[in-house]
Amino acid sequence: MSFISRRTFGKSLLASLGLAVLRPASLVRAQLFGLFLGKGHETPAITPNEDFYVTSYDLTPEIDMDQWSLHIGGMVERPASWSFADMLKRPQTKMIATLECIGNTVGGYSIGTAEWEGVKLNHLLDEVGFDPKAFDLVLRGADDYSDSFPLSRALEEDVLLAVKMNGVPLPPDHGYPARVIVPGIYGMKNVKWLTGLELVPHDYKGYWQQQSWSDTALVKLSSRIDVPGDRELITTPRYTIKGIAFNGRTRIHNIEVSTDAGKTWQPGTLLPKLSPHTWTPWKYEWNIPKAGEYTLMVRATNADNAVQTLTTKPSSTEVMEIHAITVKVELA
């Protein structure tokens, strides 16, 4: 099976552009966003494909579809391979889910929500006769990237081998012809350009785990202010602050907003979300007392009563930083 690999060229190019090759959030769009401060933009429920963040181990590989197939092997009774046509003939499932990069910064834009469509992974595993003694499912891409997650997670109903994104075939940068979508786990384990799946008896460490990134990669609690934007000028005495909150598969319980740099907090309103696997939009109606400069902050609490904080306990590796922006208010 011949795929064109451009790893060496890609990493050299990324390095020349000043991007951190060893950091999954090497996303030009997200990095440049911080250079342009001003008017905020409300986050759409579904992220258009052209606006969805792009992060990868290397440049997008060129796939020869005449040779492409997806192979499942390792600890299975009946190893099998499927062509793209085979995948399309199978029953398709749609799922709306949010995907986030593990390197997303506080208030960053390396996060997006899409409607994914494809084959349930557990159906394929049942078909090949998986060995319940297997520990990890290893996923390999056409760019020679690999990662894994436990077999127990792969067998759950919400894991897809996606072939479509927002109603169209996966765009090349997002994994065409097939990628895995695992809600609640950071994007680095949602392997793109899939060519092989392998069940193994041990905890497989992929590329980023070998660089000391998280092995479980569970999405942490976060929230973001989208409207207003940082340094935006507000000229009305009443203003609706808006944003999103996300904690993977853990439900957001409430949202709070501070307009005085964290001295006091007021409850916001959670808005309906599209599915259990997506971010939660929120809003806060701000009655502005007077003109001046304000530091706005947001924090979320999840269903387990974990609250975002500015600091972390010395014994904990969990860091949940708070998004803050500054706005100027001028009232007539």
Sheet of most strands = 5 strands, mixed
Q: How many structurally independent domains? A: 2
Q: What is the helix tally? A: 6
Q: Using DSSP, what is the number of strands?
A: 19
**Helicity, in percent?**
10-25%
Radius of gyration: 21 Å
Uncertain parts: 1-36, 312-319
Separation, N- and C-terminal Cα atoms: 69 Å
Q: Name the average pLDDT.
A: 88
Under CATH at level 1, the class of the largest domain stands as Alpha Beta
At CATH level 3, the topology of the largest domain is Sulfite Oxidase, Chain A, domain 2
Any chance you could write out the topology, listing elements then pairs?
Blueprint: H1 7-16, H2 28-33, E1 70-74, E2 80-82, H3 84-89, E3 93-100, E4 111-120, H4 121-128, E5 136-141, E6 146-150, H5 151-154, E7 160-165, E8 168-169, E9 179-181, E10 194-200, H6 207-210, E11 222-227, E12 233-234, E13 238-246, E14 252-258, E15 266-267, E16 269-270, E17 280-287, E18 292-302, E19 323-329
Parallel strand pairs: 1-10, 12-19
Antiparallel strand pairs: 1-2, 3-4, 4-7, 5-6, 5-10, 7-8, 7-9, 11-13, 13-17, 14-15, 14-18, 16-17, 18-19
